[in-house]
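Researcher: Structure for this, please.
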Amino acid sequence: MDKVITVSREFGSGGRELGVRLAEHFGIPFYDKELISMAADHADMAETAFQHYDEKLPDMHDPLDRHYYNPFSAVYKVPMSDQIFVAQSSFIRRLAEQGPCVIVGRCADRVLTDSVNLFIYAKMKDRVKRMISLEPEADPQEMEKRIREVDRKRKDYYQYYTGAQWGRAQNYHLCVESGLVGVDGCLRAALAYLGEN
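Model: Predicted structure, token format:
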């Protein structure tokens, strides 16, 4: 594998697990939440800010976003969430320059221009079932609400920062429904698409 693989995913679909397994198969680095501390360090910004604004839109009701945003200032200032996105995007490009890797989320499929982009999705019942298996004490109805909320935030974030429609097949090289084939089937499909048998 000589390209970066990006994995976009619906919450609970198994996209992160697929990313880990692809990275293991190819013997290349895997990045997901690790990007937060790495990008913060690279940008010389507080990691807590990166964690707070990770995949979140600007919020003028947020004191930090208001503090950093002043459209009438002569000094270039933008909302903290925008600064985080720019710093994270810059770091993603830097990782791609270092060689092949797998990156989950963070609009990496749009940040990079020469990556292989996957999207993993599943029916709600399959996602709830998967998440309940990971968190057995969770209430199924509350889990469904959580899944819908995370998906809504991911969709809004993606569309705000990229102008593209999250989850739309034309934006990816391969879309796979994990509820039908599981993560194992998604892995087989991705490897077949990438020319691996």
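Researcher: Any notable elements?
Model: The two ends are 13 Å apart (CA to CA). The chain is about 55% helix and 10% strand.
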